[in-house]
Amino acid sequence: MADHPVDEKLPALKMATTGLQHVAAMYAGVVAPPLIVGAAIGLTATELTFLTGACLFTAGLATFLQTIGIWKIGARLPFVNGVTFAGVAPMTAIVASTEDKSDALPIIFGAVIVAGLLGFMAAPVFCKAIRFFPPVVTGSVITLIGISLLPVAFGWAQGADPAAHDYGSATNLGLAAVTLLIVLLLRRFTRGFVKQIAVLLGLVAGTVLAIPFGVTDFGPVADAAVIGFPTPFHFGAPQFQLAAILSMCVVMVVSMTESTADMLALGEIVDRPADEKTIAAGLRADTLGSALSPVFNGFMCSAFAQNIGLVAMTRIRSRYVVAAGGGFLVLMGLCPMAASLIAVVPRPVLGGAGVVLFGSVAASGIQTLVRAGLDKDNNVLIVAVSLAVGIIPITAPEFYHAFPETARIVLDSGISTGCVAAVLLNLVFNHLGNRDARDVTHPMEAGEEITPPHPPKARTSPDPRPAP
To answer: Can you tell me the distance from the alpha carbon of 33 to that of 39, in angstroms, rounded to the nearest whole number?
Structure first.
């Protein structure tokens, strides 16, 4: 009996090239979080290169866990795992609230380890509780992730240092705009592999165009070693602070929710529907990968939704192809010179590409909301209030200034507060009380239109049809 396409092992060359394609599709997404967090901390170029390489390395390990699997760990589906965007805003909030910035990463790592271990233990239960996370909740949260990160792209577009004389200059904004234009043109007029790596090609082209303006620094590449290893706890032993742990636990819930939705979607695409057992195994891989990641100086890991689109487009469903991509991620993590290449890219160029990258995340959330049953008044209220609550830290950064610093770690993260609001509102409006079962949206379906409580009155006019 022939193997299912998910378990098919392709020829070596095709395995390598298609695996690289998956890496290209998610590379910018993996390196963006360490860039954001590292910049917030004020890491040197060398330290930033190390942190980026560590995230690539741990993304490869997490991808192995998800695709190859061991015991009851791993969905064994073609999933690429990497640093989740959901953790960026809470991590930058932790950095902002930490007086000694050298303690920021150890505090983040400690929180991620605890959240990962708790998530691992909760995986068998969480896969049963997914009915409380319908598209109206997940769509709101994913949308908030993109909206929360867009200001980062706008900051990058202005330059690396707000105190610099050229911050926000026409040159910097012009480089960002040109990079954005290149990415858009590549997406519009190319096909296949080139179209998939449009963001990566845009970064390369923008960097080359920036050279004459003197904003491209090749120093990190020259100083980087060809071979290296992400030394365990390079930035210090993990520290455990309750507020930071609570914040990352919220992120873990968001990440597990996204991964569950991704598994259900990918299962349909590859014609191997994800049942409860598969979801539990996949969540164990995500959470265990997240718990192990800080040991090698990486962040929380989650499935990358953009690779699902790549599987759907190419129709190459083999999980071993994605495992090959994981191998490339590990190799890149072990080569600091390769990881340092991203540090060469000027911030304005990153800002131009970031508009597409982060905007696409928000657009994915909107796509999820489209099938969330927004014809129902209750769901409209859930989306409206959760988005409003989540946008508060973006539009009014000092809104919670009177709260204790420990509480602000959670409150200053629009993703965390928006997620909590969406879950609670969904429980109140769609689950509590004696309600008709048809009023409750199914986790992965849009929900049917509610029958009006009072059907329209029958017509009182005479029947125009002749009597028999």
So the answer is: 10
